[in-house]
Amino acid sequence: MENPLQKYLLAHSTPQEEALAWIEAQTNTRTNYPQMLSGPLQGRLLRMLVSFSGARKVLEIGTFTGYSAACMAMGLPEGGRLDTLEINDELEELICEGWRRAGVTDKISLHIVDAKEFLRSYDGPPYDFIYIDANKREYLQYFELVLPLLRQGGLIVADDTLQGGKVYEESQKVDAQTKGLYAFNDAVSKDSRVEVVMLPLRGGVSVIRKK
Fold first, then answer.
1. Per-residue b or e along 82-107, where b marks 16 or more CB atoms closer than 10 Å to that residue's CB
2. Helices 67-75 and 92-102, interaxial angle, to 10°?
């Protein structure tokens, strides 16, 4: 359920397009964990960051139902491309239908693959923008794998980095996902190769720039 702050933010932000609302509705009715959806606020932020940064080549780790990929693709210029990685193929039909409705199918390549295998074998041109929203236990591994694939000055956006407050509430650092995020946040904040700012949007968003 949306809290008063979330309701106010949504009411004073540009509404999502009909196709994105369709993906959100389908996610709520057809998946067991609809809270994993990035949602309108975060989707709009991703779209704007992609557009503002001038990104032409984007990578996403963790497709889920395709909402965030559609948002980022909307921020890409003509000729821009997005590679998105997903290990679970059960939602592929929903994903592709949502992208078709959003008119972004020609900008996105869906890879049903283990993310770490893809990243280790990737030998293409560098990415301009990378979004991480997958297994929280492996965020630090993803970071180390993607940083060499990102151009200088490029952005990494990592989702759920506050884990509902668990990362800063000492008594809550018990589950594997929280431990993974705590290690990621700590390492990135001390990494001289990047600069980072954490934002308290939904479950927490970290925006990281490669120096």
1. bbbbbeeeebeebbebbbebbebeeb
2. 30
Q: What is the CATH number of the domain that holds 184?
A: 3.40.50.150
Task: Name the residue range of residue 78's domain.
Answer: 4-210
pLDDT digits (tens, 9 = 90+) for 18-38: 999 999 999 999 999 898 999
Q: Is the pTM of this model over 0.90?
A: yes
Q: What is the pLDDT of residues 156-165, one digit of tens each?
A: 999 999 987 8
As for how many domains the chain has, the answer is 1
